[in-house]
Write a structure and sequence with these properties.
The chain has about 180 residues and is mainly beta. The chain is built from 1 helix and 13 strands. Strands 6-7-3-9 form a 4-stranded antiparallel beta sheet. It has a 3-stranded antiparallel beta sheet with strand order 1-13-12, with no helix packed on it.
């Protein structure tokens, strides 16, 4: 059982040994999220043509953008409908300065960061390029992050908020941090 269910809950299986452990949740796993600059023309804003190469961790897929789908709406739909999409969702967010294309990873963890490259076309898709160690034409709204816990004072990192490999026979479901703001 957990004495702080605001931070985590614990379940056990038949291999768990009796014991008491100090558990400190330092950080929750988070999914990567990127946003384009605002396009003042809204959904119908023409971005450009070419090929978007989108990776999530080590998996990737390509989306061809031509004159039939070169708007924000067209690009969003092309990404979401790509049969080879590895887990990147595209949406449009409307704000005071215009409309932004937002890409969100469906998987948490640092190893599932999104990168976007473009090739060919008229160069307009360059506005959507985001490389973790290079060009950053999109804004990172949320970094790809692993969960971080301390078990009996020892660090443990996991790509999700379901941690089954920190204590034999115990699965921790992380729901919040135990950090105290000062």
């Amino acid at each position: 059982s957990s004495d702080n269910e605001d931070a985590f809950t614990a379940t056990v299986d038949s291999t768990a040994a009796s014991g008491t452990y100090d558990i400190d949740v330092k950080a929750l796993a988070k999914a990567h999220q990127l946003a384009s600059n605002p396009f003042v023309g809204g959904n119908g804003s023409v971005v450009g043509t070419g090929t978007l190469n989108i990776t999530q961790g080590t998996n990737g897929f390509t989306v061809v953008i031509d004159e039939n789908n070169n708007t924000l709406t067209g690009i969003r739909d092309a990404i979401n409908k790509a049969t080879s999409n590895t887990g990147v969702q595209a949406t449009l967010i409307h704000e005071q300065g215009g409309t932004r294309l937002v890409l969100s990873s469906t998987k948490t963890g640092a190893s599932n960061a999104i990168q976007v490259n473009q090739s060919g076309g008229d160069g307009g898709l360059q506005q959507l390029v985001y490389q973790t160690t290079g060009t950053k034409n999109m804004t990172e709204l949320q970094p790809a992050q692993d969960s971080h816990i301390l078990v009996a004072g020892y660090d443990h990192y996991a790509p999700t908020n379901q941690v089954a490999d920190a204590i034999d026979g115990v699965t921790l479901t992380l729901t919040g941090t135990t950090e105290v703001d000062t």
